Amino acid sequence: MGKIVFHSEEKGIRIDIWLSNKVSDLSRSYIQKLLKDKNVLVNGNTVKANYKIEEGDQIILNIPNQKEPEIVAEDIKIQVLYEDEDILVVNKPKGMVVHPAAGNYSGTLVNALMAHCGENLSDINGVMRLGIVHRIDKDTSGILIVAKNNSTHEILSEKFKNHDIKRVYHAVVHGVVREDLGKIDAPIGRHPVDRKKMTVNTERGKRAVTHFKVIERFKDTTYIKATLETGRTHQIRVHMSYIGHPIIGDGVYGRKKEKYPIEGQVLHAKELGFVHPSKNEYMEFEAPLPHYFCEILKKIRS
């Protein structure tokens, strides 16, 4: 039996909807079944699917008979930008999934980390997410920080929660962005119909802020730098689509027809800065633009 404990910071949302947003691997209908079977406790009591959560609720989700598959170390080459006894900073390639999930238990960054670090990975989030403090999408390339022990993981998680991590992305978007600088302040939440998508949701979304700066303009595209003030799921992709400039190659939030054929969004996590959890020194890392990104720029410029 798997048990997940949540502490709610929201209120007024149906618990089945709230849990389906928190645990994206589980469908809303399955969560409703767990509620019906009394596998969800709120402050120690069972509740129905229409229960509206209150701020400060302690929610325990029990998932019966759910066996985690065996995740094995795999000798997959990863680019390490920095490593010490507490952290690992890596440059994830486009196309690599960060951690195992249903139907995809091998070839992930976690499989590679297990081979590289052995047992020196935090296990706060379970065997499926060893060392993983934050994620980037499969088709987003760039920098990730990995925790090699639980105390480091907790400190880094708090820094992400408090927005104390500098995160800068580069992207190529459709259309000519007129403003040299811009700020997108629009809340992001789960899409009301397509639960796999995120959307700007003024009623139930969480505050999301993206700052962008134009690096180079072309005939019908723009090369930008985007800095995250918050870190919501798919934030840059959703925000750029929201203002009418979706990222090139984005099959979820982008245009149906692509002038520049590429699989997956042209989005790269280029810079990451933070105060080291144990050394208490500010550190900053940069991952150079990958080949696919440079090739797109080359095609556009030509």
Walkthrough of the structure:
- This protein has 302 residues and is of the alpha+beta class.
- It has three domains: 2-63, RNA-binding S4 domain (Structural Genomics Hypothetical 15.5 Kd Protein In mrcA-pckA Intergenic Region, Chain A, Roll), CATH 3.10.290.10; 79-162, 2-Layer Sandwich (Pseudouridine synthase); 167-269 and 293-301, Pseudouridine synthase (2-Layer Sandwich), CATH 3.30.2350.10.
- 19% of the residues lie in helices and 28% in strands.
- Strands 5, 6, 7, 8, 9, 12, 13, 14 and 15 form a nine-stranded mixed beta sheet that branches. Strands 1-4-2-3 form a four-stranded antiparallel beta sheet, with no helix packed on it. A two-stranded antiparallel ribbon has the order 10-11.
- Strand 5 and strand 6 form a beta hairpin.
- The longest helix is centred in the middle third of the chain and has 12 residues, at 150-161.
- It is globular.
List the topology elements.
Elements: E1 2-7, H1 15-22, H2 28-36, E2 40-42, E3 45-46, E4 58-63, E5 79-83, E6 87-92, H3 109-117, E7 141-147, H4 150-161, E8 166-174, E9 181-185, E10 188-190, E11 198-200, E12 209-217, E13 221-228, H5 235-242, E14 267-275, E15 282-286, H6 291-301
Parallel strand pairs: 7-14
Antiparallel strand pairs: 1-4, 2-3, 2-4, 5-6, 6-7, 8-13, 8-14, 9-12, 10-11, 12-13, 14-15
Helix pairs in contact: 1-2
